[in-house]
Amino acid sequence: MSILLNKNTNILVQGITGSEGSFHAEQMIEYGSKVVCGVTPGKGGQTATENKLPVFNSIHDAKKEFQVDATVIFVPPRFAAQAIIEAIKESIELIVCISEGIPVRDMVTVKNMLDKSSSTLIGPNCPGLITAEESKIGITPGFICKKGSVGILSRSGTLTYEAIDQVVNVGLGITTAVGIGGDPVIGSSMIDILKHFKDDNDTKGIVMIGEIGGNMENDAARWVKENLNKPVVSFIAGQTAPKGKRMGHAGAIISEGSETAEAKIKILKECGISVANTVSEIGITMKSLIG
Amino acid sequence: MKIHEYQAKEILKKFNIPIQEGYAIDNNTDIDDTIKKVQTDFNSEAVIVKAQIHAGGRGKGGGVKYCPTFEDAQEAANTILGMNLITHQTGPEGKMVNKILITQALDIQKEYYFAITFDRSKNSDVFIVSTEGGVDIEEVAENNPEKIIKSWIDDSPNALENAVKEIIASLSLEKFENVEQMFKDLYTCYIESDCSLLEINPLVSTTDQEIIALDAKVDIDSNSLFRHPEIAAYHDKSEEDPLELQAAEYGLNYIKLDGNVGCMVNGAGLAMATMDIVKHCGGEPANFLDVGGAANVETIKNGFKIILSDKNVKSILINIFGGIVRCDRVANGVIQAVKELELDVVVVVRLQGTNAKLAKKILDESDIELISAETINEAATKAVEMIK
């Protein structure tokens, strides 16, 4: 079992004729993902990638010929919100947006639409998700994953890879790893993903990686305390980050006390979550809990 | 992106918000004419001279002066333009004042605090107001939290209407004409200009029974600048750290800190985690640097150049998780960059991911002095200990 994604998920790539879109579509196929077709407005009728995937002008056209369960968006930031909205309107179940740099205002509109829809959005500004040895949507390096018992969720891309690598190296392996994105407004919160892991029988433990900015980790910690009886290991990046400075991610900025790493770590611990002292202790901490 | 008060007021004016009027200058030779022009155009004998820097607390730091006469204004303008202004937000080194704004003086009855920003936890915009205007709002939040009123604007049909009514009532502004429209215009300004913060402190009522924005602080969502070329043109490079600017030109994300262990990392989260572990190992990180997904020779070279422009740096810790980019390529890139730049600092390299073992072999066998490490912990420890 896994969450959100498995080997049978039919995937469409929005922006498939761009360099990022075509490169990662091929990487996904190589990993085993069932990529069925792509969309680039104005390029319908062409094919893309070495696999000669059909390209459509719109998701609407693509759906006439293919079953589409999920879409991944590799579209420049100024057009990305429109691409997400198109996918919501076409009732695509799982939407994954990799693009970084979408204006907050656009994402507020997206989020309001999303809340009234049945779609799940992962991202934007994220690496996507991967279900070990089955399928990946996005840019996570596949070779580092081995099937196992740990679910991973993270606001950061490379820290997702780091966590996967450590969990695999201590012999546990992963079910699904989800990079939820580093923007201030994202489709799925930590709690949204924790709910999926709670219901997944194969997931025995969860790694939750946060960072400075916002209060999502604090909300998630309280939710875990009330609702989850699986071990959770957390790590919060940015203990040395100065206040008021944006640390790379648009969402990684401290504007009030509860948004610091220190405050988050305190709340996580109070809620019974094991917090790794440093980034290199994520794997061994999980091993000590469910090894 | 931060902009100056005078620029923020230009934006407000486009949305019909009454502002304290004035003219900005950056040259001493324009001082006399500008004071006279402000006095005539806005019928105000007294004027205010205000330093234009991207930091708050200007008044307390001596960067804002009320000047009853032309001579006072002359003196204040000549003092403030070109001064090094130190406020609680500039840090002890202060900021050079390259521009001043000379404005009309108003007869103020009462000062209010007004702001609109985005509340991440509620996914909606929020009005923040207080009857305690003109002072540091963080102090009000600390000492009199009950005096700060928040009113959220969600996506329901009458949300703005209701929120505006709420703040008018809480500030007791009912008797002022057009005040409802003004708050709606402020919200339109906030939305249409893609502000991440629109703050007016103080918003004042005058003895003439008008409501006027005396100050303005506007932060713009940098990701939206493609649709606001006129706001993008407000970017004042002199307000930014020159190293951070240069890094941005290289496409790197760099923030200078005070330590001596330079960090070069791919990914913002891993970059923060690397700084943290340096501290954990007893060192002090010199910077945040995210070189992005493509860690090639060029980006690594540029990363070295930026880090080494900071003379405090004694060692450099490179921490790259090679996913799509293979580690052996990153290793060769590091070696080439070190050779070409003839570095003389300690460089510790930790590469993890695709072909990590091969990469370590390449580093260990190279003819340049590099320290390789397998785990982040080991790498950070070495980077800290080598310079003790």
How would you characterize this protein structure?
The complex is a heterodimer of chains A (291) and B (388). In chain A, helix 3 links the parallel strand 5 (70-73) and strand 6 (94-97). Chain A has a seven-stranded mixed β-sheet with strand order 3-4-2-1-5-6-7, with helices on both faces. The longest helix of chain A is centred in the first third of the chain and has 13 residues, at 19-31. Chain A is 34% helix and 22% strand. Chain A has helices at residues 19-31, 59-65, 77-89, 104-115, 157-169, 190-199, 216-227, 261-270, 282-290; strands at residues 10-14, 34-39, 47-48, 53-56, 70-73, 94-97, 120-122, 128-131, 135-138, 147-154, 174-179, 205-211, 232-237, 274-275. Chain A contains nine helices and 14 strands. By secondary structure, chain B is of the alpha+beta class. Chain B contains 13 helices and 18 strands. In chain B, strand 16, helix 11 (327-341) and strand 17 (346-353) form a beta-alpha-beta unit. The interface between A and B is large, with 55 and 48 residues.
Number of helices of chain A: 9
The chain pair with the largest interface is: A-B, 55 and 48 residues
Strand order of the largest sheet of chain A: 3-4-2-1-5-6-7
Task: List how many beta strands of chain A DSSP finds.
Answer: 14
Q: Helical percent range of chain A?
A: 25-40%
N- to C-terminal distance of chain B: 39 Å
Instruction: Tell me roughly what share of residues is in helical segments of chain B.
Output: 25-40%
What summary fits the major beta sheet of chain A?
7 strands, mixed
Radius of gyration of chain A: 18 Å
What's the gist of this structure?
The complex is a heterodimer of chains A (291) and B (388). By secondary structure, chain A is of the alpha/beta class.
How would you describe this structure in keywords?
heterodimer; A: about 290 residues; alpha/beta; 7-stranded mixed beta sheet; B: about 400 residues; 6-stranded antiparallel beta sheet; 4-stranded antiparallel beta sheet; 13 helices; 18 strands
